[in-house]
Amino acid sequence: MTDDALYLMQVLADAGDTRTGDKLAHVICQLVKEGMPTKLGALVERDVIDNGAPRKSLTLPDEWFTRLADAVDRGAFETMSAKVIVERIPIPLPAPIAE
Fold this sequence. Notes:
The protein is an alpha+beta fold. The protein has helices at 3-13, 18-35, 62-73, 76-79, 82-88, and strands spanning 44-50, 53-59.
């Protein structure tokens, strides 16, 4: 699990800020629904251990966790609708300009 994913878990668990946590939970659920292979095809397959046995699992791309963490830090969950956040997270960032 990435540092950003762990940070988001802390935001979800923070009882003092339920508005952000509730909206974050909703956004994550919508990203999973939209990221299913029949839609965006963006979920990542990972190997996990479940009850001691290896299996495949689908998860959000690490880049999306980073973008969600940035959105929390920048206050997007207080100023933007969940719909807008869900629409923006999967959009590829422009390539850096070569100097």
